[in-house]
Amino acid sequence: QKEVEQNSGPLSVPEGAIASLNCTYSDRGSQSFFWYRQYSGKSPELIMFIYSNGDKEDGRFTAQLNKASQYVSLLIRDSQPSDSATYLCAVNESPDAGKSTFGDGTTLTVKP
Amino acid sequence: NAGVTQTPKFRILKIGQSMTLQCTQDMNHNYMYWYRQDPGMGLKLIYYSVGAGITDKGEVPNGYNVSRSTTEDFPLRLELAAPSQTSVYFCASTGGHQPQHFGDGTRLSIL
């Protein structure tokens, strides 16, 4: 059973702080990694995707991937109350290119 | 751009009734998925399809059926609804090693 595990929440940070969300996966052959944000009562929406080892930055968001350690993380800098949501980590299995396994999510609250 | 469209948005069923949740996408994606999400939980894969005419079971397929006669449409059928099927259902699609695009979801209550 391929697994994706996220750090248990909820996670609470003050406005302006860095929020760090972590995810580990069991399938060593995984090739694609995604972070989705889900507001309460809404559908998941893509925040970041990363395919190669290292860091990928997009505005206040940075995704980090370490395939050797089977670890992917999402950093949110200068956290805003609007970042309060559940963040889902998803990993695409190999060799099925399209099928993702999702973690259970980490709920983030950013306090003003 | 419509993306992934799900209907209905809300539905209440009685135990033992049947219904079909509709899902259509206009992005010409080969891969389509049905998930359910229970309160406070992650997404559980019910069924998926890698192309027209091809479907496969996911993690929680019992009590559900699907078909994929066209690239665009991927309906989910509930037979003999049970209270345990009360959930939010999401349909999604992707072109491969790409992010998934989600519909707005269907909130289903079985009473």
* Rg over alpha carbons of chain A: 13 Å
Total number of helices of chain A: 0
Q: Structural class given helices, strands, pairing of chain B?
A: mainly beta
Tertiary shape of chain B? globular
Shape of chain A from CA axes? globular
* Biggest β-sheet strands, sense, barrel of chain A: 6 strands, mixed
Residue stretches of chain A low in confidence (pLDDT < 50, at least 5 long) are none
Discrete helix count of chain B: 0
Q: Helix proportion of residues of chain B, in percent?
A: under 10%
- Rounded to an integer in angstroms, the radius of gyration calculated over CA atoms of chain B is 13 Å
The main pleated sheet of chain B reads as: 7 strands, mixed
Describe the 3D structure.
The complex is a heterodimer of chains A (112) and B (111). The N and C termini of chain A lie far apart (40 Å). Helix content of chain A is 0%, strand content 54%. Chain A is globular, with a radius of gyration of 13 Å. Chain A is mostly beta strands. In chain B, strands 2, 4, 5, 6, 9, 10 and 11 form a seven-stranded mixed sheet that branches. Chain B has a four-stranded antiparallel sheet with strand order 1-3-8-7, with no helix packed on it. Chain B starts with a strand and ends with a strand. Chain B has strands at residues 4-7, 10-13, 19-25, 31-37, 43-51, 54-57, 64-66, 76-78, 87-94, 101-102, 106-110.
